[in-house]
Amino acid sequence: MKFEKIRTFIFPIIVCIALSSLVSCASRARVAVSQLDTPGHHTFTGLKLLELEKYPDAQREFTMAIELNKNYSKAYTGLALVNIFTGKLNNAAENLTLGSKYATSDEDKLFNDVSKIRYYSISKADSNWLELAGNQFNEAVKIDSKYSPAYYLMGMAYKDALDFNKASQMFTKVIQLKTDHIADADAQLKFLKKIQQAMPATLEGKKIAMVERLTRANAAALFMHELKINELYKKQVPQAPETAAKEAEKISVETQTKDVEKITAEVRDVGKKIIEAVTTVSAPAKLMANDIADHPFKKDIEGVLETGIKGMENDPKGNFKPNEVLSRGEYAIIMEDILIKLTGEKDLASRYVNSKSLFPDVPADMPYFNAIISVTSREIMEAKNVKTGEFAPLKPLSGVEALLTIRKLKDKLNLN
Predict the structure, then answer these.
(1) Radius of gyration for the chain, computed over Cα atoms and rounded to the nearest angstrom
(2) pLDDT at 358 (0 to 100)
(3) Percent composition of the chain: helix, strand, coil (DSSP 3-state, to 5)
């Protein structure tokens, strides 16, 4: 109660002080102290610092620009970008509103429009964020139909929305315009081409294609959704033994002359054998992990644990470590084990032990050696660096790289 009384007493005073401060600040702008102390120069410097990801320094420059001219549109939009990149999205929305309010030139309006595209793409605060981004794109190209940043950022928005075809169209337009973002657009087109080659068939596959560093959970989701590993493995598992059924038939013939009590006992025994056989083959014990209770890929991880893929097991403490990043060498071991189970070539696990290495960074005594040779000899995986021939066994692989290996595996084994 005491705190409430104090707050009730002080709050009006704070409001009055704040209002008087705002009035006094609004009445006069900061006086420039040098020739370079201008809104334009501070904003230009702020944008350069923004490119270098020096966000506090960029924020300082934009703030100094506003101190000199409270109606300087670009400075507000620049502040919005700082807040977007640092996750302060509510502040960014306010900055963008002010940037739009004070925009007088086409240049100001274009900068604000494309910054809003970036805001909607990153925040995704509204379910119709893509439509909102598209509206800002339309506003921008009405002003200048050849404004490359609008096409590039709309391409990134479509990419985030997993609409890869429209994203490709936008990036292609950027290259055709031959002004800004050419190298960036070219890199994005090459990336999208890899996704198209991998042909992800599921929404989960498309999402994971965007991942830069594949985790164990990502891999589990790909194996369950894109490869459908559980269904493939079930086809490889032998059905329940037919011997129990044959035994039942034999007993029915031989025991026609036996008494009813003995027949009943033997039939029960046979039924028990059949149930045990079916249970053993078709209902393996469900494996669990201690650290996946709230993980979005929990079901996929449990499915992979049931298949028993080498390299995708729990650790001795029963943890799956879903967020641990997989190296290319570890992934090769996983793919080799899948190959062995699907082809029945059990000797594959040691086939290349005494072979000569094909890669300068994969010595024969490396734990991943045999697996790497197994998957590369079948062209399921390849060197990371074509020029040097290095496989990069300790480096991570991306989601799209993992998808490509699954595509190649399916093609090699006619699993499509």
Answers:
(1) 32
(2) 93
(3) 65, 0, 35
225 near 300, Cβ under 8 Å?
Answer: yes
Cβ count within 10 A of residue 86? 15
Q: Judge whether 309 and 223 are in contact, CB under 8 Å.
A: yes
Closest CA to 406 of 334, 308, 325: 334
Res 359: pLDDT: 97
With cut-offs at 50, 70 and 90, classify the pLDDT of residue 15. Answer: very low
pLDDT at 267: 47
Report yes or no: 83 and 91 within 8 Å, Cβ to Cβ: yes
* pTM, entire model: 0.77
pLDDT digits (tens, 9 = 90+) for 300-348: 999 999 999 999 999 999 999 999 999 999 999 999 999 999 999 999 9
Which token pair is 73?
A: 């549109």
Q: If you average pLDDT over every residue of the chain, what do you get?
A: 85
The structural domains of the chain, ordered by start, are 30-200 (1.25.40.10), 207-229+293-412 (no CATH)
Contact 357, 290 (CB under 8 A): no
The CA distances from residue 47 to 10, 140, 214, 288, in Å, are: 40, 20, 33, 50
Check: CB of residue 65 under 8 Å from CB of residue 46: yes
Q: Which residues contact 81 (CB under 8 A, 6 or more apart)?
A: 50, 92, 115, 118
Q: Is the dihedral of CA 178, 180, 185, 186 positive or negative?
A: positive
pLDDT at 32: 60
Q: Give the ranges where 199-327 is alpha helix by DSSP (H).
A: 203-209, 216-225, 229-236, 243-254, 260-282, 298-307
Contact yes or no for 227/308 (Cβ under 8 A): no
Can you tell me the distance from the alpha carbon of 376 to that of 225, in angstroms, rounded to the nearest whole number?
24
Nearest to 114 by CA among 42, 18, 181: 181
Q: Is residue 138 within a helix (H) or strand (E), and if so which, with residue range?
A: helix 129-143
pLDDT digits (tens, 9 = 90+) for 40-51: 999 999 999 999
C-alpha dist (Å) from residue 211 to 325, 390, 400: 11, 22, 7
pLDDT level of residue 285 (50, 70, 90 thresholds): low
